[in-house]
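Class, carefully examine what follows:
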Amino acid sequence: MSRFEEGLPSHFVVFSQTPKAQDHGRALFVRFSIFLIVPVLGILVHGSFPVSLILSGVFFILIGVFFLISAYSYQQWHDWQRTPFAVSPSHPMMELDSDKESEVMIRMHDGRWLKAGNDRYRLISDDVLSGYNLVAMNDDYTILGYFTDKKTIDAKLRRTMALLNQSLALRDAHNEIEDEIEDARERESIDYGLLDRDWPDESEMEDASGPIAKRLKRQE
């Protein structure tokens, strides 16, 4: 078990190891590998770089760009592997058609794994620490815990929240629990600024869920 999974009950599966997530993870890894292999193949095919190219400085610029792109690709793959939630084997993301109750656990910033409650979650800036707490979208805005030390909600964090809430929607659909996400949206529209919110676009939700969303539609 990796340090990232430390404390997670053994029967839970981290998101990156679910079938659909593994497909995307492999695509990211292939992209990273291509950036590493293509320049090496170029050297082997052409024998060596022309001296004039090296002296002109273009070679060093190309090497710099190569390392920047490689580092970016690796970071994307690494972040995907550490998406901070896990599902039980009966969860629809595992595609096993199990009749057992589905569960989701969330990894907090300090490494603790906590069982997700019955609500969806949003982020609210912490009053003391630099970062965001994970807050349940219920009448009390219950704080689950300190989730991230990031100072802003960037695209990667928005995608993580979209994936997390999609997993909770699938969990509730599997457990035949009424989906109250629209009620949460309505509460947001009348709230007076307690939360820092950023609901994902519908297109982003579709991108996050993929074909799995069809299961939700069958529940409607």
In short: Strands lie at 13-14, 85-87, 104-107, 113-115, 121-125, 132-136, 143-148. The chain has two domains: 9-81, 119-219. DSSP finds seven helices and seven strands in the chain. Residues 9-81 form one domain.
